[in-house]
Amino acid sequence: MSGPVAIDGNLEGPRAYADRTKSLDTILDKDREVIKDNGEVAHSSELASFRVTELLLPNSETYYGALLGNIPEGRGKYLWSDGCIYEGEWRRGMRHGIGKTSWPSGAVYEGEFSGGYMHGAGTYIGSDSLNYKGRWRLNLKHGLGYQVYPNGDIFEGSWIQGLPEGPGKYTWVHGNAYIGNMKGGKMSGKGTLTWTNGDSFEGSWLNGMMHGFGVYTWSDGGFYVGTWTRGLKDGKGSFYPRGSRLPAVEELYLNA
What we know:
By secondary structure, the protein is mainly beta.
């Protein structure tokens, strides 16, 4: 069995994980001979009970911990030939419960597993210093989570299938901040971006660009109400000087 692999693009390893997260039954087959504590070779039919021991597998991988027969059950540690390590709880030969997976690159995941997958609440620290703490589903960030990117940017909010999606807040390392809806990891839907110079845009976004109806407000209090197309004003709008009040119809649209 090869080492465990996470699926998100920010995590270690390729997407081919089917043989890395399934049961160890293929290795610890009931018909396979294993090494007993005293070094003798024994058939698994002799070992259908709980015990704690070390298994040295033909593929140079090692398991040390609790077994039920020849299947990991309870707490144990598995060392893959490529240097990956899992230490934690097992159920029916799969990582299940609380545990920790370490990759040779230095990346680490610590948290909940289910059926061999990172699933539930957990923290991942990448070899590039990416740090994510939150919910997981089948090896992907899924649910509410907080991530610090390698460059210092931060996203806190909803994740779906490994990407920011739904309501959240993205803060750039230089101080700009976006609060609103995300889709596929980009600003999409309704949201407000505030720049460090005091300017802001509140309105509709598409693929990370202002797109649709919105209000751009300058730091001096003046604002422009109109429509944008892929980040550019398309000429359909009005400018209001400082001290003006947003027309009721536009305010109603923004708050819809």
